[in-house]
Design a protein that fits this description.
globular, alpha/beta
Amino acid sequence: MKIAGPRRERTPGGARVVARVEWENEPGRSPLDVWWEAGGSAAEDLAASPDAILAAVFLPAAARGERRIALEGPVCPRLAEGLVAAARVFAGWGRIPSEPPRIEPRSGFRAPLPRRPERSALFLTGGIDSTHLLRRNRVDFPREHSESFGDALAVFGLYAPDQLDPADPFGAYARTREVLDAIAADAGLILVPVVTNATEVASDVDFIARVSLSSVLASAAHLFPSRWSSVCLASGRDASILVPLGTHPLIDPSFSSAAVAVRHEGIGITRPERIAELAAAEGALSRLLVCMAGPPPPFLNCGRCEKCLRTMAALAGLGRLAESREFPVRDLAPDAIDAFSVGPHYAPYWRDLLPLLRGRRDDLAAAVERQLAAAERQARWFRNAGWKGLLRRADRRFLGGRLLALRRSIARAS
């Protein structure tokens, strides 16, 4: 892979950083201009950082078998080592090939200096995890402390950059900005919104979620080395249910440079505990953005996807769902949970909700238990457990899978 740039450009509303990516292992693939845009006062601090572009492209390049990444400018040696370490962890998880690409910066390796005095920021989405992290930070650190957040970094375009239109006053970007601006203002933060197409380097949405999510977030953080010395990413899970995903406490700090540390925080607190803390804080639930579906106005949460339903169930168990204005319903019925398939991957998150629901919303607890039972049946199928698993293994070994094929054909016919 060869990278031209990055270069900084003025825009009508601020500034952008652009770099051109050319693939060497796939010569037929068209070059891609990868860009980040920032507006307002924060645009003055936007820097054309080679570390930012390297963080964004390294894991996708490794997944596509690129043997090297040649780029202009110096690269932080700490970041370079961290990227290689992250790639090898993902290789161990079976997500990318085992040999990461070489990093070949034209100006060599050079450790950038962090800003002084130190200053902290957080990635803000408006969801349970980042809202809880912000609240805990305000409780734990006095405002003059270097660990007290001064900025909130909001990154737009991670999953659907082609659907972003900052000029559309009714679009998801403008409506999300309005809520995040209000959250930041209430907390005394400066919101730094960054719009990017950096995830277009990845192969698909699944790769972003399973591999490259936090590296792209980190790329946005490395664009502002003069503005902050650390950026915190709120954990989406707790230490008891860690799974290999694109944001992980083992992976995220690997995307730090000598100038900007990337930290993964909140792993010691379960999601129900976070929700309960927010429910006890006045006004903390009024603006919650947990949905990734981008529903049309007037709500920012669709109320039907797994993440929405899980959050709504927890809030309903606490008797506080009606306080969040961004959900389309003020109460949750069991049939909404019954209509959704939780599956084995999300089962641990739903199991954590049962203590919140039992004795308060037994109807929802019963629906969750039905989902968990179905998820366990699925998991047993995948594990080939029990006599049915023995039968499936025998079918594959001795009958070439013909028994399963017959069963499926009968099911379709019926």
